[in-house]
């Protein structure tokens, strides 16, 4: 066992691709981002997850004779949002896994662009794909809440703070999925993130989207989301090259995120 | 004396206890240099080093005058390099166009319109214009190799490193490949590894035969076939004096080795010279593979 591990490490060391020193260019990142965005949005995991969440919402809403339940706008939007979040996690994770799963190391190692170009291209894809869709979703959701007469809507809960969390959370969870995909080359990464969020109660202990009425510290929560995004981006880039700056920024953002997660919680809990 | 564009000097490489290259030394000028050798001879290891994706344990390599162990110079090589690995990976859910476009972006072709023109050009060049919008997972093995060749040709690189580019291609495509590569050779440098001695005879002014991580032969295809001159003869049966022998389509046995007196000698081919050099290894390794 120890001998085979030693051999594996020796082989990995002997096969290491010498790094490229060029810096990622904005033009290359944007061009890759366009491709990645299209791939994320068209990937079956994305639209199947969004579609499934809609079906579940329809099931939860009954879909039978009670008209007041069938037009439950907040429930419909919440279902779509869950689908958007989980679909983003799965498709972003698959996109991050792609080079390793498809054995592209050798070919991509021979090009002048450094591996960071591809990693930042993934984040650009996240921005141009699921993030833009989440902005559209937020705009449509805002219109629905302010224009559709539904007794289930509480307009006081929907303010700029509530709205801004939607795209930020989509980006943060997508960034987490990319970071996990860069470090753990397995298709289980995305489902594990979702399971960890749902079944461990993590998403209730440290929520992603909460109304101001829950008592959450708005500023700290936004700091938390920004810190989470920074941590995942730094972590993903550290997979390409663990520079002192990346580790320092990632570590600093992680520490800030932990502080913000504690500070945002109201004294008596949510 | 032509200036060498590839300089390999006493290069060693080990993977664990396996020796891939053992003091390999040769120079190659601009033009096409073919690498021949049985499986495990170290051809792919050498090509990976030429493509700057693998560093030697010891020895010196210079490509186009640059040293790939120096970061700046490695970048300069990569900017002039087209590389087709032996087992190229593919993003299977991409179309042929999307995949080559993706590689083109990584090759610093960022202007969208000119990049797309270039992607269409190389796909047309390898005869994939009709399937460029088809997903790679739906393409045949030969078509995929042509996609891999297309990405290597992006930007008309000064240095082409091709690892078994004709494996899996049908005869027409092999001829098309020869046409593409020979048209581009000129003052550019092409290093290609192959098991097809016909490709070497048809394409390469220079050939290096590798065995056990070292260069066993370095010369022209004519010189390689010359190795077997006076040692190839046809006979109705396998000759006991032959080191290698096989029955041809006309029923006669082609024997290679020290010819017995009175044998009908024939003009040797590159393959005869190669087989005589590499000997039984050529067969046993292929059987093992």
Question: Describe it for me?
Answer:
The complex is a heterodimer of chains A (270) and B (289). With 270 residues, chain A is an all-alpha fold. Chain A has one domain (24-264). Chain A has 12 helices and no strands. Chain A has helices spanning 2-14, 26-42, 44-60, 67-70, 73-101, 105-109, 115-147, 160-183, 189-199, 202-205, 218-240, 244-264. In chain A, helix 5 packs antiparallel against helix 7. The relative contact order of chain A is 0.12. The mean pLDDT of chain A is 88. In chain B, the strands form 3 sheets. A 6-stranded mixed β-sheet of chain B has the order 5-6-7-3-8-9, sandwiched between helices. The two termini of chain B are 40 Å apart. Chain B has 10 helices and 13 strands. Chain B is α/β, with parallel strands linked by helices. Classes of the chains: A mainly alpha (270), B alpha/beta (289). The A-B interface holds A 7, 10-11, 14-22, 25, 27-28, 31-32, 35, 39, 43, 98-99, 102-113, 117-118 and B 13-16, 48, 51-55, 57, 68-69, 71-72, 74-75, 78-79, 81, 83, 85, 87-94, 98, 101-103, 105-108, 110-112, 115, 151, 161.
Produce the secondary structure layout:
The complex is a heterodimer of chains A (270) and B (289).
Chain A: H1 2-14, H2 26-42, H3 44-60, H4 67-70, H5 73-101, H6 105-109, H7 115-147, H8 160-183, H9 189-199, H10 202-205, H11 218-240, H12 244-264
Helix pairs in contact in A: 2-5, 2-7, 3-5, 5-7, 5-8, 5-9, 7-8, 7-11, 8-11, 11-12
Chain B: E1 4-15, E2 18-29, E3 31-36, H1 43-50, E4 58-63, H2 71-78, E5 81-84, H3 96-106, H4 112-125, H5 141-153, E6 159-163, H6 171-185, E7 189-193, H7 197-203, E8 206-211, E9 214-219, H8 221-226, E10 232-235, E11 242-247, E12 253-257, E13 264-265, H9 270-278, H10 281-288
Parallel strand pairs in B: 3-7, 3-8, 5-6, 6-7
Antiparallel strand pairs in B: 1-2, 1-4, 8-9, 10-12, 10-13, 11-12
């Amino acid at each position: 066992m120890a001998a085979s591990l030693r051999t594996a490490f020796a082989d990995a060391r002997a096969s290491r691709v010498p790094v490229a020193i060029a810096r990622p260019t904005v033009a290359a990142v944007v061009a890759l981002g366009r491709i990645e965005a299209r791939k994320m949005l068209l990937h079956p995991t994305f639209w199947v997850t969004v579609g499934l969440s809609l079906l579940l919402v329809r099931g939860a809403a009954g879909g039978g004779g009670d008209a007041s339940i069938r037009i439950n706008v907040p429930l419909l939007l919440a279902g779509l949002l869950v689908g958007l979040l989980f679909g983003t996690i799965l498709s972003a994770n698959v996109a991050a896994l792609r080079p390793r799963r498809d054995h592209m190391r050798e070919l991509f190692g021979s090009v002048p662009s450094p591996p960071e170009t591809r990693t930042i291209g993934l984040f650009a894809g996240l921005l141009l794909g699921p993030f833009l869709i989440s902005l559209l979703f937020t705009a449509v959701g805002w219109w629905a809440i302010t224009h559709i007469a539904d007794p289930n809507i509480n307009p006081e809960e929907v303010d700029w703070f509530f709205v801004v969390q939607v795209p930020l959370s989509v980006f943060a969870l997508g960034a987490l999925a990319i970071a996990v995909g860069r470090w753990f080359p397995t298709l289980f990464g995305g489902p594990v993130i979702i399971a960890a969020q749902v079944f461990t109660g993590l998403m209730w202990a440290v929520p992603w989207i909460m109304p101001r009425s829950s008592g959450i510290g708005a500023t700290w929560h936004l700091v938390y989301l920004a810190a989470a995004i920074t941590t995942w981006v730094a972590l993903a880039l550290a997979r390409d090259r663990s520079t002192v700056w990346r580790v320092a920024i990632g570590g600093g953002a992680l520490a800030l995120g932990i502080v913000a997660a504690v500070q945002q919680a109201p004294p008596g809990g949510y | 004396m032509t200036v060498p564009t590839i300089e390999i000097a006493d290069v060693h490489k080990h993977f664990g206890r396996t020796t891939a290259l053992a003091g390999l030394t040769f120079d190659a000028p601009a033009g096409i240099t073919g690498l021949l050798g049985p499986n495990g001879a170290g051809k792919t290891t050498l090509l990976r080093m030429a493509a700057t994706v693998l560093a030697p344990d010891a020895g010196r390599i210079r490509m186009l005058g640059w040293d790939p162990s120096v970061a700046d110079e490695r970048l300069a090589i990569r900017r002039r390099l087209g590389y087709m690995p032996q087992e190229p990976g593919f993003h299977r859910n991409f179309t042929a166009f999307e995949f080559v476009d993706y590689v083109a972006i990584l090759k610093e072709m960022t202007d969208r319109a000119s990049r797309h023109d270039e992607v269409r050009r190389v796909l047309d060049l390898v005869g994939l214009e009709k399937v460029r919008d088809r997903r790679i997972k739906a393409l045949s093995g030969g078509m995929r190799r042509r996609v891999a060749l297309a990405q290597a040709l992006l930007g008309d690189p000064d240095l082409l490193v091709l690892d078994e580019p004709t494996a899996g291609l049908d005869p027409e495509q092999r001829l098309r490949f020869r046409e593409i590569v020979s048209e581009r050779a000129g003052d550019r440098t092409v290093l290609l590894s192959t098991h097809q001695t016909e490709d070497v005879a048809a394409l390469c002014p220079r050939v290096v035969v590798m065995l056990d991580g070292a260069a066993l032969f370095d010369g022209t295809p004519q010189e390689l076939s010359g190795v077997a001159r006076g040692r190839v003869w046809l006979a109705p049966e396998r000759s006991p004096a032959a080191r290698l022998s096989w029955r041809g389509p006309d029923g006669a046995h082609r024997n290679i080795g020290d010819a017995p007196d009175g044998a009908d000698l024939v003009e040797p081919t590159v393959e005869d010279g190669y087989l005589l050099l590499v000997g039984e290894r050529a067969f046993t390794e292929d059987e093992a593979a």
